[in-house]
Write a structure and sequence with these properties.
The chain is α/β, with parallel strands linked by helices and 156 residues long. It has a single domain, classed as Rossmann fold. It is 23% helix and 26% strand. It has a 5-stranded parallel beta sheet, with helices on both faces. Strands 6-7 form a two-stranded antiparallel ribbon. The longest helix has 17 residues. It is globular.
Amino acid sequence: MAHEIAERNFPGRDLVLVGIQGGGVNVTRRLSPLLNAVLGISVPLGTLDVTMHRDDLDWHRVPEIRPTDIPFALEGRTAVLVDDVLFHGRTVRAALDALHAFGRPGRVQLAVLIDRGHRELPIHADFVGKSIDTTLVERVIVRIGVSPDDDEVWLT
């Protein structure tokens, strides 16, 4: 994915990575040094909590709010939103709302480690690590290990 992101955004001077809180932050932390090495620059890194922008807050008892840290201006930049699993598309919709609360990027791209389909919204990932066919009742669990050899993805 790092090579695809670099290729589409070369030379990468206006590029920023924004990990969606939860699994997306872990994927971003793994992706960032790879992308930096490919581009030969340091791509700014941020985290984004989408909890208060979700359309299903009434389904959760107590929402867990995690830190948002976007230590750079978004205006005119290419923001790559990063998440672990793309499913219905609702988290990405919330992330777009949350991201625009911090500024107006010139472009937003989406990178996901796993695309499991079953979209309820017209959301499409620009960069996909792996597409997995699942049923609606299966769950995809991603564990980002200390090294790539420790990473795991499984269905339950």
